[in-house]
Automatic annotation (TrEMBL):
Gene Ontology CC terms: mitochondrial inner membrane; respiratory chain complex I
Transmembrane helix in keyword set: yes
Topology term for the membrane: Multi-pass membrane protein
A biological process from GO: mitochondrial electron transport, NADH to ubiquinone
Record InterPro entries: NDUFA11 (IPR039205)
Protein name: NADH dehydrogenase [ubiquinone] 1 alpha subcomplex subunit 11
Alphabetical UniProt keywords: Membrane, Mitochondrion, Mitochondrion inner membrane, Transmembrane, Transmembrane helix
Subcellular location, record wording: Mitochondrion inner membrane
């Protein structure tokens, strides 16, 4: 049995730690959920006071955390399984998160639609290079954009007169 390319340092692939990455993204998404829950509580008409963030609209916090965790875990598992870092990973993670959003509505058509919409959006976003964090300098972008002069097939020796 040959060793997997992820174990080979010359392959250039660096596997993502799934649980650590998914937990980090899940906690960040829970923070966003707390913000959204706070807005829901502030704009709603009720008599719960500030505790309404947790008691009345607290499900939003857990839902955002679950979507973030699901997205990150799926993306990392697909990335590590395929041993490639491309837009398909983001599509798969977005599809899983969108499917989860549809299941919250208790509708399978909405779940499939959420999979297509969120997965497509994340796939396009990854394809455009926004999530990969690759920063090119202006000179690198310029060199990739402009055509380079062709190299001669045969090098001519300088003649001395």
């Amino acid at each position: 049995m040959s060793p997997s390319p992820s174990a080979d340092p010359s392959s250039g692939f660096d596997p993502k730690p799934v649980l650590q990455y998914a937990s980090t993204v899940g906690l960040q998404a829970a923070g966003v959920g707390l913000f959204v829950s706070t807005l829901q509580n502030a704009l709603g008409n009720h008599s719960k006071g500030a505790m309404g963030v947790v008691t009345r609209t607290g499900g939003t916090i857990g839902f955002f955390a679950a979507m973030g965790f699901t997205f990150a875990a799926t993306e990392a598992v697909v990335r590590n399984t395929r041993e490639q870092d491309d837009a398909l990973n983001g599509f798969a993670g977005g599809c899983a998160a969108g499917f989860l959003a549809g299941l919250r509505q208790k509708s399978l058509p909405v779940a499939f639609g959420g999979c297509a919409v969120v997965g497509g959006a994340m796939g396009i976003f990854d394809y455009s290079g926004q999530l990969s964090g690759v920063q090119e300098s202006r000179e690198e972008r310029r060199n990739k954009f402009f055509k380079k002069p062709p190299k001669p097939i045969v090098e001519l020796e300088p003649t001395s007169a």
